[in-house]
Write a structure and sequence with these properties.
Order of helices and strands: HEHHEEEHEHEHEHHEHEHEH
Structural class: alpha/beta
CATH class: Alpha Beta
CATH superfamily: Aldolase class I
Low-confidence stretches: 22-27
CATH architecture: Alpha-Beta Barrel
Distance between the termini: 31 Å
Largest sheet: 8 strands, mixed
Strand content: 15-25%
Shape: globular
Number of domains: 1
CATH topology: TIM Barrel
Length: 264
């Protein structure tokens, strides 16, 4: 039902474009993370399966189609994300906001989590999406700062932290981030990132195993044990995070409604 509705409305999901290992489980529960603003990203992160290149122009009818799909599924909580659109003056912030507003109009009471790019650090773009009133603002730092040149060469760790800090200071919703493990990070680096995210105001954190989408992507350096993920869950909760999703198959939007409820 989910896949048929997506095809009928010409919508995309990060579940499919990002080769998420949980997509079968989530689709069976009637859940999907909508990927807006097309399927082509302007960045080429070394961990990501999404295609990179020159994107198509924005489709102004997309927000209404997303809302129609959510209404048809009867969802009470929805996650929106996007490709990074560095080609747009506002990084796509206005399109994000229009989609959140369309959901509020067609599906009153629906909870909305938005997983946003860094908007090149633009405070105005961030304010645009926050003004639309999402319940959760998520932005993933993805890995430890030392690995950014190899994993996220077009991103900046400090810029991502500043976005999260601004979102937390705005108030009105929960702030969330995520880290992948197995890229070559050290234990102390992971705990330092957790501390940075907590100081930035994050209430929700996700930790999952990195899986290389192909041979051309950054290699998997380590398969982290379930026990280690459980240990990190305890560490993060003890530090003060309100909700922690930690496990090999955890992804940013996995059981998003559950972890949002835990953070309240």
């Amino acid at each position: 039902m989910v896949e048929q509705g997506l095809r009928a409305r010409a919508l995309h999901t990060i579940c499919e474009e990002g080769c998420c290992p949980n997509r079968g489980e989530c689709f069976s529960r009637g859940v999907a993370t909508m990927l807006i603003m097309g399927r082509i990203c302007t960045r080429d992160c070394r961990f990501c399966a999404v295609a990179t290149g020159r994107p198509e122009p924005l489709d102004p009818a997309e927000p209404d189609r997303v809302a129609g799909q959510v209404e048809a599924l009867g969802l009470k909580f929805v996650v929106l994300t996007s490709v990074t659109r560095d080609d747009l003056p506002d990084g796509g912030a206005g399109h994000f906001a229009a989609t959140v507003r369309a959901l509020a109009g067609k599906c009153p009471g629906v909870g909305v989590e938005i997983l946003v790019p860094d908007f090149k650090g633009s405070p105005r773009a961030l304010e645009t999406v926050l003004a639309a009133g999402p319940q959760v603002l998520a932005h993933n730092v993805e890995t430890v700062p030392r690995l950014y040149p190899a994993v996220r060469p077009q991103a900046k760790y400090r810029r991502s932290l500043e976005l999260l800090e601004r979102a937390a200071s705005h108030g009105g919703g929960a702030v969330k981030s995520g880290i992948m493990l197995g890229l070559g990070e050290e234990a102390q680096e992971v705990e330092a990132v957790l501390a940075d995210l907590l100081r930035a105001g994050c209430a929700i954190i996700t930790l999952g195993q990195y899986l290389a989408p192909s041979a051309r992507h950054h290699p998997v350096v380590e398969y982290v044990t379930p026990r280690r993920f459980k240990e990190l869950e305890g560490v993060a909760l003890a530090m003060g995070f309100k909700a922690v999703a930690s496990g090999p198959f955890v992804r940013s939007s996995y059981l998003a409604e559950k972890y949002y409820a835990l953070s309240r």
